[in-house]
């Protein structure tokens, strides 16, 4: 099949046109190369010919292959419904710009999330973010799953993870990002991290359990590989790698725990940092979802040996110096998986560090963590739940049901990115929180470090829909943490423009629809039969008036005659015997039967034969001469006779009862007694035949042989 043309053997009567198929065009057809519309709605002649000729091969190999692929796809979809781990770490990042108030938002766009955009934004206290110019765009060959940025020694790097590729760019101020290198991961990449110690060094992990150090100058170096999980067996292939306070020590995590690995030590050397078990007071079924090294942002921040570990129930802070025992545990109670975490530097000396923890459902919680080298980390005050995207739904004006549903679906899209920015301010320290939804929208909140103060939707100019995404680039009204019952005129105007831009976007059409076929082409030869009667006419009249057909529209319907009662059949000896045995009179029934059998002049009653057998031998009885049955025939010659009448049947029964001991003629007489009347013969006191036997007799006409046409046959010795 890899040749240009391949021949399908096995059909000698087939022409060359039917046995030789062009592999190039066949593969084009199988790949959906149909420029005139839906590729599934058209079957080319090549595919049809290949299916006919290669039927034996396709029925065995293709069905098993499709079965395995379908089972794998269904299992993958089910795992994604339970936990979509593709966007672990987030796809939104903040790059510092030329001034502290100006930076860039890096995020994916497009329906397939395969366009990396760089949008410059200006942040000013007391006002909304200002978009500076049009965003830059880089076209990729796969969906963006994770975006990571870091600045080391004045050099800012940007790393992007896709399903099977990883890439790194060098970001320069007021210039387009310069690509450094692209790496292909055959088994699928699950995590990427930038080193906080050495510029240009990255840690990459794959689904096969391998962890590699990657630098654009030195290439790829594998430092760890273990296809099995760390603590106990778990079927998830998810792996994660990050850096530690030591430049040559990495953390490797899976669903069961986190391990520290020395890149310069022997293979397999390491120390378990966190275990999902009794040491951390984990619940039953608790699994690791995210492990992150926050690093050291400033001398007044937390110790550089702390690591952040998130599960579906709790948040843990673990110190490298005291492994296996968490320094801080807090139950976050997020209804969706916590796959996003961002830690900001403290606003000043002695101030706690704000930590944003986000879930896929759009819920974000703000924690203030404090602690120095000599003390354990702790929470400075109760955690704060920020308003989610769906909380602002009730503050919007009343909409039509269809528009309200469209707005609700837009706000309920999963959150796949989280970014934070805290520009220096002379007044109260503030922070900007940006959220990226799976629909391509960017939301932001302007927060004071003590409480949230506002909410905003998207960072584009109002009323201008994006050309490549159905997301409108209109700003939404600001909101407090609790939506106010009424809005100011300015907020109402913002809300109106945002809704107008949102509702003007047409709904996305389905990617694939089932092909439709014309019933006229399939049923063209079938002409509609005119239906006459009172019921169809009344039904058409009722449909024309738009009401339901009722009984009074039909008038008095003719009464249906009751079906005829079944005629009593012969008495069943088995039923009588069972009834007598059930009543405890089995011996009496047996004596009564023996008395009937001993009476003179009575013949033992034979069991009733089945009807299909009588119809089978109806043709044979019409060919036999039964007028002279007192003596068996000595010649095998057969001559045509008229149809048998009930009078001849009765005479035959009398002759056989007089002493003909031939079993063949006696059995044939029994079947003659069961045969119905021949069509056109008047009944002579004969019992009417059931309809089932009559239909079987009519369906098997008797064949009368002509004289001399049948050869002489030997007399059968047994049976018929």
From TrEMBL:
Residues 159-293 form the TAF1C beta-propeller domain. Residues 455-490, 557-576, 583-720 are annotated as: Disordered. Pfam families: TAF1C_beta-prop, TAF1C_C, TAF1C_HB. Residues 560-569 have a biased composition (Pro residues). Residues 612-633 have a biased composition (Low complexity). Residues 646-656, 692-709 have a biased composition (Polar residues). It comes from the Eukaryota. One of its GO terms (cellular component) is fibrillar center. Gene3D superfamilies: YVTN repeat-like/Quinoprotein amine dehydrogenase. GO terms for molecular function: RNA polymerase I core promoter sequence-specific DNA binding. Residues 711-720 have a biased composition (Basic residues). Residues 405-620 form the TAF1C helical bundle domain. Residues 642-720 form the TAF1C C-terminal domain. SUPFAM superfamilies: WD40 repeat-like. This is TATA box-binding protein-associated factor RNA polymerase I subunit C isoform X2. It comes from Heterocephalus glaber (Naked mole rat). The lineage of its organism: Eukaryota, Metazoa, Chordata, Craniata, Vertebrata.
């Amino acid at each position: 099949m890899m040749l240009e043309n391949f021949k399908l053997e096995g059909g000698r009567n087939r022409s060359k046109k039917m046995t030789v198929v062009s592999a190039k065009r066949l593969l084009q057809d199988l790949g959906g190369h149909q420029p005139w519309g839906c590729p599934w709605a058209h079957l080319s002649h090549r595919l049809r010919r290949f299916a006919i000729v290669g039927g034996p091969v396709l029925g065995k190999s293709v069905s098993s292959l499709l079965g395995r692929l379908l089972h794998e796809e269904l299992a993958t979809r089910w795992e994604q419904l339970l936990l979509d781990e593709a966007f672990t770490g987030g796809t939104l990042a903040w790059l510092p710009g030329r001034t502290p108030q100006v930076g860039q938002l890096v995020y994916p766009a497009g329906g397939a999330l395969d366009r990396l955009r760089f949008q410059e934004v200006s942040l000013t206290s007391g006002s909304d973010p200002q978009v500076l110019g049009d965003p830059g765009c880089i076209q990729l060959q796969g969906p963006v799953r994770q975006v990571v940025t870091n600045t080391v020694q004045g050099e800012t790097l940007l790393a992007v993870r896709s399903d099977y590729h990883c890439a790194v760019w060098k970001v320069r101020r007021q210039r387009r990002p310069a690509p450094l290198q692209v790496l292909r991961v055959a088994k699928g990449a699950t995590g990427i991290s930038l080193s906080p110690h050495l510029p240009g060094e990255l840690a990459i992990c794959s689904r096969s359990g391998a962890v590699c150090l990657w630098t654009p100058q030195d290439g790829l170096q594998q430092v760890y590989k273990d296809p099995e999980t760390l603590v106990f067996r778990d079927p998830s292939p998810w792996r994660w790698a990050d850096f530690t306070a030591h430049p040559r020590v990495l953390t490797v995590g899976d669903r069961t725990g986190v391990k520290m690995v020395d890149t310069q030590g022997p293979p397999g050397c390491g120390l378990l940092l966190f275990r999902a078990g009794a040491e951390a007071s984990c619940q039953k079924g608790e699994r690791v979802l995210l492990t992150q090294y926050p690093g050291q942002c400033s001398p007044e921040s937390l110790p550089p040996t702390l690591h952040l570990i998130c599960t579906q129930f709790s948040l843990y802070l673990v110190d490298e110096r005291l492994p296996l025992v968490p320094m801080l545990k807090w139950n976050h109670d997020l209804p969706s998986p916590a796959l996003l975490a961002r830690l900001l530097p403290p606003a000043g000396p002695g101030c706690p560090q704000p930590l944003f923890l986000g879930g896929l459902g759009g819920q974000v919680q703000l924690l203030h963590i404090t602690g120095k080298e000599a003390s354990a980390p702790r929470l400075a005050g109760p955690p704060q739940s920020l308003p989610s995207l769906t909380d602002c739904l009730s503050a919007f004006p009343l909409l039509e049901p269809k528009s309200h549903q469209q707005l609700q679906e837009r706000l309920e899209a999963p959150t796949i990115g989280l970014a934070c920015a805290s520009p220096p301010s002379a007044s109260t320290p503030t922070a900007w929180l940006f959220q990226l939804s799976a629909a391509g929208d960017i939301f932001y909140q302007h927060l004071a470090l003590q409480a949230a103060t506002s909410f905003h939707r998207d960072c584009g100019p109002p009323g201008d829909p994006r050309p490549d995404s159905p997301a409108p680039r209109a700003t939404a009204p600001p909101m407090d943490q609790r939506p106010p019952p009424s809005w100011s005129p300015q907020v109402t105007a913002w809300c109106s423009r945002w809704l107008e831009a949102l509702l003007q976007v047409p709904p996305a059409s389905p990617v694939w629809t089932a092909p439709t076929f014309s019933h006229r082409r399939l049923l063209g030869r079938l002409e509609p039969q005119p239906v006459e009667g009172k019921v169809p006419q009344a039904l058409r009249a009722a449909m024309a008036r738009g009401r339901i057909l009722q009984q009074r529209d039909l008038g008095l319907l003719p009464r249906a005659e009751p079906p005829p009662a079944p005629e009593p059949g012969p008495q069943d000896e088995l039923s009588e015997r069972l009834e007598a045995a059930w009543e405890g009179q089995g011996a009496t029934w047996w004596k009564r039967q023996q008395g009937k059998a001993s009476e003179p002049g009575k013949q033992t009653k034979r069991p009733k034969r089945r009807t299909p057998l009588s119809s089978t031998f109806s043709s044979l009885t019409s060919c036999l001469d039964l007028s002279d049955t007192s003596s068996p025939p000595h010649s095998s010659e057969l001559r045509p006779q008229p149809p048998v009448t009930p009078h001849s049947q009765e005479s035959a029964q009398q002759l056989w009862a007089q002493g003909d001991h031939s079993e063949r003629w006696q059995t044939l007489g029994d079947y003659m007694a069961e045969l119905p009347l021949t069509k056109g013969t008047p009944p002579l006191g004969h019992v009417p035949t059931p309809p089932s036997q009559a239909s079987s007799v009519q369906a098997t006409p008797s064949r009368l042989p002509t004289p001399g046409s049948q050869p002489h046959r030997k007399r059968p010795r047994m049976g018929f």
